[in-house]
Each structure stands twice: as C-alpha cells, then as structure tokens.
Amino acid sequence: MDVQRYISSGIIESYVVGLVSEQEAREVESAIAEYPEIREAVEACRQDMERYVELYAVSPPKDIRSRILDAIENESSPEGEELLPEELREPGEAAADRPARPAFKLTPLRVWQIVALLAVAGMLISILFNNRYAGQLEAQQVEYASLQANQAALKEEYQAAMAKLDDVTGELNVLKDPDIKWTRLYGTGKHAGQLATVGWNPESKEVYLRALSLPEPGPGQQYQLWALYRGKPVDAGVFEMGKQQHALQKMKPVTAVQVFIITLEKKGGSATPALDQLFVAGRP
Length: 284
Hints:
By secondary structure, the chain is an alpha+beta fold. The chain has helices spanning 3-7, 11-16, 22-34, 36-55, 64-73, 78-83, 93-97, 108-175; strands at 181-187, 195-200, 207-210, 221-229, 232-238, 249-250, 259-266, 278-282. The radius of gyration is 47 Å and the shape is rod-shaped. The protein starts with a helix and ends with a strand. It is found in: Cell membrane; Membrane.
C-alpha cells in the first residue's frame, strides 16, 4: 500500500467524522492496525477535530433546562401523549377519538438543527482537508524548488561537458590534419629536459602549441613563442600555463619560420626575445 497516498486521499478525515460505510470503516481500522503512519494520522486528525470543537464550542441557551423539564411534565398530557410512539400510548376513547397525525414532522427547530449540524460537519471536514493539503502543497513546493536547483546544476554540468567535448574534438581535428607539421622543442643549457610541441601549417599559417613540461613561470612572468626566420624573431604570442599547459593552444599565425624558440618574458610579452631566458628551441 502507498501509505502517503492513502493518508492524503481524505478517507482518514471521513472516518474520524463518521462519514464512511461499514466496509470502509473496517478497511481503515485494518490499515490502522497494520501501518503506524496511518494510526498516527488518525490520531492527529482526531486531535485536530477536538481542538476545533473546543475552540468553536457554543454554550446552550439559558432556557434549555426549563424547556426540557416542561416537556417531561407534559408527558402524560394529550400533547405529551402524541409525542410517544403509538405502541406506548394509553388505550382509551381519548386516544381513539384523536385525529391521526403524521408519523414524523419536521419542525422549524429540527430543520435548523439538522442544517446547523451539516454545516458544522462540512466546515470541520473542509478545515481538516485544507490544513492537510496546505502541508502537502508546501512540501511539494519545497521538492519542486529542489528539483529546479538540481536541474540548473545538471544544465551547468552538461554545458561544461559539451564545451570540453568541443575542445577535445577541435584538438583531434588539428592533430589529424596532414597539412600541419609538428616540431618538438627541447630544453637548452640549464633547462635541458624541458619539452614543448609546436604545430605549423605552411598553407594556412596557423600555429598550435602544447607547453608539456615547461615549469611554472614566476609572478609577473609569462612564456612567449618566437619564430626565427633569417635571424629575425617574429612574435608568435604568449600562452597560458596551469590548467592550459597540456591543452592545445592556438598562437599567432606565422608566415615563415626556420627555428621556433620559447623564452621567459614579462607578463604580456616583449617586443624582442630575452635570449638569456631561452628555455626550448626546435627546427621544423
């Protein structure tokens, strides 16, 4: 059984106010015995009804006692005799001579009492239903907000994954391009063991770089790629380290090159290379 769905169906409130059939009452009692949650819901509903009755209880009219006593005193009178069932009336000519009267008569007072009872019962059920459904609505709103937050997080993760996929796809296309010539740049002097890779397309003039094992530059410093041609250095741009160190970074286009070198410059690059800060070099 779906206990929460059963509790929210309204059968609990109907059972407490006595508006269920015998079969439905037996089913509710069986569920109470089997499921603690349903037993707690029934008890909570009863307590809510008791609190409501205490809150909206109406004191009886002050003359109700005298009216009841008058009715008892008139029980043996003709008027009182007519109020008794026929099998309890005293036999006699008086009873025989009296005109027959309807077996049941709805007086204005009784009609008012029935209407009032139905109105109170309807109000009680309405209040209980409203309180229960208000709590359920609040819980659903909290759950909906949580689902929206999860959806937003999943959307961000999806967009990041798609961006990463685009980067990987772009790198694969570059690596598979037969027109790109790849050159390894090896460490020089005290920087022996350092390594970077440069790809150059002589037709499109595009240049790509992967920093590989270059060490992190100091504060305010940045690596710069140069293309040497006929003894003149051509700026091919600065590049990022850190997370981008092993990524394929697109550099400035180069028309012609004999040797690629990388130097350590001030952040943002320099107009001419600092050859005393030469780290790696390689010939295409």
